[in-house]
Amino acid sequence: MCFECNSSPLSRRSLLKFAGIGGVAVMTAGFDMTMPAFASNAPALLPDEALAKLQEGNKKFVTDTEACAANISKRRQDVAKSQAPWAIVLTCSDSRVVPELVFGGVTLGELFVARNAGNVVDTDVLGTIEYGTEHLHAPLIVVMGHKRCGAVSAACEVVSKGTKLDGSIGKMTQPILPVALAETDRGDNFVDKTVHANAFNGAERILTESAIVSRLVEEGKVKIVPAYYDLDTGVVDFLHKV
């Protein structure tokens, strides 16, 4: 399917419909090991330029500015043999949080996305991020939590009510528990504050637990930014960088 720039620009609603039929790519924590180890078309973006591009895309998403996703067929061919994403996004698996739409309807090959419940930094995620920065040369890492996150809410229930979580869900929320325990405000804003803190915690863990990413940050080639997505307004708040 092909959409031309000068025909019918895509509004947010049409982008959502388009994503529903598989037109917008989501690169999850796995990656194709058959591709070349180093991308030949590394993005010519600095970390701050990549961040500005995400911010501008989010403005388009929020204001319903017409967005263009031109010639998907050609774009698919262009990126079929190599990829050079300009940003890595670690976010929640929540079905309402779709980075490719939230950041303005980006197309194939632009974002390297890792998702799990609660945007938790685990071995798989950290390896994915290292691959995205060192081998694909993505200059920006965004760790994005979101309003009313179910995984964070579950961890907060464990802390505040002693709730027991069955199966692997309990194990999944364990990395969030120290973040919830450290939050002193256990009132109405407990979950929301923990979501913010969890994004910061994830960004800090990437920096401290990955020598590869830490070196690239020190060299000024990569920036790590925690963020918060508001489900109600669609706005992404980029928090202070780590």
Automatic annotation (TrEMBL):
- Give the top-rank taxon of the lineage listed in the UniProt record for this protein: Bacteria
> What are the names of the required cofactors?
Zn(2+)
Q: Which Pfam families match?
A: Pro_CA (PF00484)
- What InterPro entries has UniProt attached to this entry? Carbonic_anhydrase, Carbonic_anhydrase_CS, Carbonic_anhydrase_sf, TAT_signal, TAT_signal_bac_arc
Top enzyme class = lyase
Give one GO molecular function term.
zinc ion binding
Instruction: Report which residue ranges the record marks as coiled coil.
Output: none
Reactions mediated catalytically: hydrogencarbonate + H(+) = CO2 + H2O
| Annotated positions binding Zn(2+) | 92, 94, 146, 149
**What Gene Ontology biological process does one annotation of this record name?**
carbon utilization
Q: Give the E.C. number(s).
A: 4.2.1.1
Q: Which UniProt keywords apply?
A: Lyase, Metal-binding, Zinc
User: What does this protein's record comment on cofactor binding?
Assistant: Binds 1 zinc ion per subunit.
Q: State the similarity comment.
A: Belongs to the beta-class carbonic anhydrase family.
NCBIfam families cross-referenced by the UniProt entry: TAT_signal_seq
Q: What is this protein called?
A: carbonic anhydrase
Task: Look up and give the organism this protein is from.
Answer: Rhizobium sophoriradicis
